[in-house]
Amino acid sequence: MAQYKHFRIDYLLHGSYKSFYISAEAMDNASAWHWASVDAGFGQIPKYRSDRVPKVTKPKAEQLGLTDVEWAES
Fold first, then answer.
1. Could you give the angle at the alpha carbon of 21 between the alpha carbons of 29 and 23, nearest 5°?
2. What is the spatial order of strands in the sheet that 5-13 belongs to?
3. Distances (CA, A) of 5 to 24, 39, 51, 52, 54
4. DSSP class of 51
5. How many Å is the Cα radius of gyration of the chain?
């Protein structure tokens, strides 16, 4: 069974600061941008962990008003 870790993701949405925590096996910049877009309401949430959904890329997220995504293991 995979070991899940907790991550904090911070971002700006149209200039407003937002923050949330997520549990995942691993995190990288591309995943952080995708999960920030999900939290902002732009991305899709998979129904099951094994489902594949289209990931929101950094350029697309920036077009929608999402900026300054930062993440850290907590």
1. 80
2. 16-24, 5-13, 66-73
3. 6, 18, 20, 20, 23
4. -
5. 12
Whole-angstrom distance, CA of residue 58 vs CA of residue 31? 10
Backbone angles phi and psi of 72, in degrees to 5: -155, 150
Q: Are 39 and 18 in contact (CB under 8 A)?
A: yes
The identity of residue 67, as a single letter, is: T
Per-residue pLDDT of the chain (74 residues; tens, 9 = 90+): 579 999 999 999 999 999 999 999 999 999 999 999 999 999 998 888 788 889 999 999 999 999 999 999 99
